[in-house]
Design goal:
heterodimer, A: 263 residues, mainly alpha, globular, B: 349 residues, alpha/beta, Rossmann fold, Alpha-Beta Plaits, 2 domains, six-stranded mixed sheet, four-stranded antiparallel sheet, 13 strands
Chain lengths: 263, 349
C-alpha cells in the first residue's frame, strides 16, 4: 500500500488545525483552569477523608493532571468527519477518490492528534505552576506510553463506530452525547475506577472504556501491580482487535448502504 | 496507476459503454404524522422508485457529450454508477475497461469529477495545498504535477488566489480551483455536474473555454450534466437526453433541433401598425406596434406559403424567420413529453 497520501493527510490536518491559533491558546488556558479546579476539589475531598482507599493525595492529583493532559489527545475525534460528510452528502465525492476512507479519517485524526500532543508540553509546564506531578521510572513511563497508544487505538475505533451510525440514522448527536457521558465516567477520566465499589468496580474495569484512560493511568501512578500490567495491556489489545473487526464489518455495510441508496 | 499519458481506447473502441443500465431505489414506506413516524419505525413495507430504466449508450474517447434531462430524470444516478459509488440493480457498464462499482478505487484513477454544488477543495487551507494533497492521493509524478499546475494556473488565471484559503474564494475562483483539482491527475474521463451553476458570464466563459481546450488538446472525454443549455450549445456536438430514467434522444445537437423544433417564428415588420394579424396556418400571434411575431408549425405550413399569405394580406417592409434555440426545444420536450413532437413529425413525413 502506498502510504504517501496518508502521511500527507496527517500533515494537512496538522496545518489546518494549527490555523486556528486562538483555539490552541484557549485549549491550554482551559486545561490550566481545570487542573486548578481539580486540585482544589481533591484537596477538599481528602481533607474530609472522602478519599478512595489506597491512593495518596499526591498520586490522586497526578492522576487527575495526567488524565487532563491525555484528554488533549484523546478528545480529538478525526472520525467526526464521517458524520459530517454523510449528512452533507460529500461522502459520495470522497468515495470517488482512489483511497481507503477509514485510513483517511485515521490519518486526519492523527495529524490533529500530533498538534494536541505538542500542546501537552506547554500545558504541562503551566500545570506544574499549580500542582506537583509524580514522575515514575523510565520503565514505567515507557509502559504508560505503550498503554496510552493502545488506548488511543481503542478510542479511535469506538469513535469510528459511533460516527458510522450516521450512515443509518444521519442524526447521531444524542447517541454521541450519551456515549460521551458514559465513557467519561467509566473510562476513569474523571475519577479512578477504584471508586466504584465491589462487583460494579469489577464490571467497570472489564468494560472497553477502561482501556482508554484507566489502564494507562493506573500504570502511571503505580496502582497496577507489576504482574497485572501484562494482562491489562493484553486486554487493551483485545479490545482493539474486537473493535477493529467490528469497524471493518460496519464500514463494509456502510459502503454497501451508500452504493445501494445513493449516499 | 496514472502514468500521465492518456489511455485512448484503441481502434474506435468505446471508452464508456453501458448496456440496459437500470437502478431501482427501495425505501421504507413512510406514513405522515407522528403516529405515522412511529409506524414507519416498525414497518417493513417498502416502496420502489425506478431512477434509471435501461440506459444503453456508448462514448468514444475524446467525445464531449451533453447529458441532459429534467430534475429527477436519473442523470446523477447514472453518473454515480459510472463513478462506481452506486451499484446498478441490473445491466452493465464498462469505463475505460473497468466495471466501475467492482473496482471503485481503480476506476477512480481514470476519472475526474466536478460538482458545481459542492467543492472538493480543503476549506481551511490555501488552494494550492489542496492540489498538493491530490498529488499525493493520485501519486502524480512531480514533473507532471508541476506542468499541469502551471498550465491550469495560466488557463484558469489562478495566479492571484493560489495562496488564498478556499473559504475566502469567490464562487468563480472556487469553481476554477475545483476544475484544476479534478484534472490534475490527467483523467481520461471527466464528469461535470452543473459546473457553471451560479457563475457570472465571465466565469462561465472561462470554464467553457477551459473544457473546450482540454477536450481538443488532450483528448479528454467529458460528460456534461447541466441545465444551462448554453453550456451544451457552446461545447457539445452530441446530446444524450433522458427523461424519467429512459433515454429519449441520443444524437447530434442539430438533429434534436431538427426533430423537435417543429415551430418557427416569422417576424414581420408591417408598413403601418395593426391591432391584430390574421393569417391562416399560424398558431399564435404577438403584435407590438409594427412588429408581428407569428409562430407556426413548419410541418403544417411551409415558410414560403406563410410569407405569401402575409404579404398578400398586409403591406410588409421586412421579414425574418427565427430558428428555435436549444433552450426552447428542450423546454418543449420537458413540457409536452418526448413523443408528442416526434409523433407530429412522423405524421407529416
Amino acid at each position: 500500500m502506498n502510504v504517501a497520501p496518508y502521511v500527507e493527510f496527517a500533515k494537512k490536518a496538522f496545518a489546518r488545525e494549527a490555523t486556528y491559533r486562538a483555539e490552541v491558546v484557549t485549549n491550554v488556558g482551559s486545561l490550566v483552569v481545570r487542573v486548578y479546579l481539580l486540585r482544589s476539589l481533591w484537596t477538599a475531598l481528602y481533607a474530609q477523608n472522602a478519599a478512595p482507599p489506597g491512593i495518596p493525595m499526591h498520586a490522586m492529583i497526578t492522576y487527575a493532571t495526567v488524565a487532563l493532559l491525555m484528554s488533549l489527545v484523546l478528545e480529538i475525534d478525526g472520525t467526526r468527519a464521517i458524520r459530517e460528510r454523510v449528512r452533507e452528502g460529500t461522502i459520495a465525492t470522497d468515495l470517488m477518490k482512489p483511497i481507503s476512507l477509514p485510513l483517511y479519517f485515521f490519518s486526519d485524526g492523527l495529524g490533529q492528534t500530533l498538534l494536541g500532543a505538542l500542546l501537552i508540553v506547554p500545558s504541562l509546564l503551566c500545570a506544574l505552576l499549580l500542582v506537583r506531578v509524580d514522575v515514575p521510572s523510565p520503565g514505567v513511563l515507557a509502559l504508560f506510553a505503550l498503554s496510552f497508544a493502545l488506548g488511543y487505538a481503542v478510542n479511535f475505533f469506538l469513535n469510528f463506530l459511533m460516527n458510522s451510525v450516521a450512515f443509518w440514522t444521519l442524526e447521531t448527536f444524542a447517541l454521541q452525547l450519551m456515549v460521551r457521558w458514559v465513557s467519561d465516567l467509566l473510562s476513569g477520566q474523571i475519577i479512578p475506577l477504584s471508586f466504584f465499589p465491589g462487583a460494579l468496580g469489577r464490571i467497570v474495569n472489564d468494560l472497553p472504556f477502561a482501556a482508554i484512560y484507566s489502564t494507562p493511568l493506573r500504570i502511571y501512578i503505580g496502582q497496577l501491580p507489576q504482574s497485572e500490567i501484562g494482562p491489562a495491556l493484553a486486554a487493551q489489545a483485545l479490545w482493539i482487535a474486537g473493535f477493529g473487526a467490528a469497524a471493518t464489518v460496519v464500514w463494509r455495510l456502510a459502503q454497501r448502504r451508500v452504493v445501494v441508496q445513493g449516499g | 496507476m496514472s502514468d500521465g499519458a492518456h489511455r485512448r481506447s484503441p481502434g474506435g473502441m468505446p471508452i464508456i459503454e453501458t448496456r440496459d443500465l437500470r437502478k431501482v431505489f427501495r425505501s421504507v414506506k413512510r406514513t405522515p404524522g407522528a403516529l405515522g413516524a412511529l409506524k414507519t419505525l416498525f414497518s417493513r413495507e417498502t416502496v420502489e422508485r425506478v431512477a434509471v430504466e435501461g440506459i444503453t449508450m456508448s462514448l468514444e474517447a475524446g467525445e464531449l457529450v451533453g447529458y441532459i434531462g429534467p430534475n429527477g430524470a436519473g442523470k446523477s444516478t447514472t453518473i454515480k454508477m459510472l463513478t462506481g459509488i452506486l451499484v446498478p440493480t441490473s445491466g452493465s457498464a464498462v469505463v475505460a475497461g473497468i466495471v466501475p462499482w467492482a473496482e471503485r478505487k481503480r476506476n477512480a484513477r481514470n476519472i475526474g469529477v466536478v460538482f458545481g454544488q459542492r467543492s472538493q477543495l480543503y476549506w481551511d487551507l490555501p488552494l494550492v495545498e489542496s492540489f498538493e494533497l491530490l498529488r499525493a492521493i493520485y501519486s502524480i509524478p512531480q514533473a507532471r504535477y508541476r506542468k499541469n499546475l502551471a498550465d491550469f494556473t495560466a488557463l484558469l488565471e489562478m495566479d492571484d488566489f493560489l495562496q488564498t484559503p478556499v473559504r475566502q474564494l469567490s464562487l468563480g475562483q472556487r469553481m476554477r480551483g475545483d476544475f484544476a483539482a479534478a484534472l490534475l491527475h490527467d483523467p481520461p474521463i471527466v464528469y461535470l455536474d452543473e459546473p457553471t451553476i451560479g457563475l457570472d458570464v465571465v466565469a462561465k466563459e472561462a470554464i467553457r473555454t477551459f473544457v473546450a481546450e482540454l477536450n481538443r488538446d488532450r483528448g479528454t472525454t467529458f460528460i456534461l450534466t447541466t441545465h444551462d443549455l448554453a453550456d451544451v450549445e457552446r461545447l457539445c456536438r452530441r446530446i444524450v437526453l433522458i427523461d424519467e430514467g429512459k433515454l429519449v434522444y441520443d444524437g447530434p445537437v442539430e438533429g434534436l433541433k431538427e426533430q423537435y423544433g417543429t415551430h418557427r417564428t416569422l417576424v414581420v415588420t408591417l408598413a403601418e401598425p395593426h391591432t391584430g394579424v390574421d393569417v391562416v396556418g399560424v398558431e399564435s400571434v404577438e403584435v407590438e406596434g409594427v412588429v408581428a411575431r407569428l409562430r407556426f408549425d413548419r410541418s403544417a405550413v411551409s415558410a414560403e406559403q406563410l410569407i405569401r399569405r402575409v404579404t398578400e394580406a398586409y403591406a410588409v417592409t421586412d421579414l425574418s424567420i427565427e430558428e428555435p434555440d436549444l433552450e426552447s426545444v428542450i423546454r418543449r420536450i420537458y413540457r409536452d413529453g418526448y413523443d408528442a413532437p416526434r409523433a407530429a413529425a412522423e405524421r407529416v413525413t
